[in-house]
């Protein structure tokens, strides 16, 4: 029984090219339908799920009648642009059987390293999850080069897991999990059931590159598990063709390889916030807001008495109590000029003052450390 898996409420599921495209013969729609059925059941069990789907290049190659993966990046990008259409259509129509919608999100790593774009992507994803729409994410292959060359949706999936604060990253692939050697080279290799993501011994076993369609191999999956672990998420690398794989994972069956983080999600997030960012401004709060923050709630504009500094959306600010002492720090949802205009205002008034509303919170509790 894996309680970290059965207890996970937010999952990121990544499906690699090799699986999705039936080893190069176009999209495997029947396999997609089987995963969708399981994802729908997970949703019914109260799990929020984000899908990271590769397969655009492979689908495009088959639509264009190409039998071998091109080397030139512009050809890969063209194939991805063609294939992405079919890929999202296939997901959408499969979810539509259950009266559910999907949403296409194309991201690059740069989008997630810029704090403003990071927050924007995060609000969109949160909103989609609230609307019970399944986001289907792929790399924005038209504008990336290295990623498309190396096939790195594993890393993208891990960054998405950090972004949405997933509890669990499930990487579905064409093997049953991570073996102690590449099973393509050593047929008697043994499946690793569980390990710590940071275990250095794993570097040796994950040495090989992937197949002709998927490109990352186990190396990128291991790196993804380590990245996901930074925000406290567990990763399962598991065979996507195993019958009812997602449902059985949810039920706690020991399928695939479970890679665990060294820290809890809360500790990981705190460390990330504490270590990486420079303070750009100060918000002075009233006593009510200080209490709310101490009870684990978000900071609303209504509890803010003054704003100092020239910060932008997504930057780090410090929150000071009425006694002048620091209470919290966090990533702010509004730039300084806007924050000035909405301080002391109720949530209803924010939209009237600004003419729009990004988020009701000035700092969301997930983006804050209370001291
Ligand atoms: N230690 C290992 N355990 C399992 N598979 C491995 C290992 N090392 C290398 N591989 C290779 O990685 C491949 C899966 O990666 P990849 O082709 O990139 O798939 P995907 O498209 O699912 O990302 C497997 O088919 C396997 O040959
Ligand atoms: N983003 C591209 C390539 C990503 C890729 O190859 O990833 P993977 O198969 O998961 O190793 C695509 O959709 O084809």
From TrEMBL:
Entry EC number(s)? 2.7.2.11
Question: What's its top-level EC category?
Answer: transferase
Q: Which residues bind substrate?
A: 54, 141, 153
Transmembrane spans: none
Keyword ATP-binding in annotation: yes
Task: State the reactions this protein catalyses.
Answer: L-glutamate + ATP = L-glutamyl 5-phosphate + ADP
Positions contributing to ATP binding: 14, 173-174
What residue range is the signal peptide?
A: none
Keyword Nucleotide-binding tagged: yes
Which keywords belong to this entry?
Amino-acid biosynthesis, ATP-binding, Cytoplasm, Kinase, Nucleotide-binding, Proline biosynthesis, Transferase
Principal location listed in the UniProt entry: cytoplasm
Q: Which Gene3D superfamilies match?
A: Acetylglutamate kinase-like, PUA domain
Give the molecular function GO annotations: ATP binding; glutamate 5-kinase activity; RNA binding
Superkingdom of this protein's organism: Bacteria
Q: Which GO terms describe its cellular component?
A: cytosol
Where does this polypeptide localize?
Cytoplasm
Q: Which GO terms describe its biological process?
A: L-proline biosynthetic process
HAMAP family for the chain: ProB (MF_00456)
In the record, the note on similarity to other proteins reads: Belongs to the glutamate 5-kinase family.
- So what does this one do? Catalyzes the transfer of a phosphate group to glutamate to form L-glutamate 5-phosphate.
Q: What is this protein called?
A: Glutamate 5-kinase
Q: Which gene encodes it?
A: proB
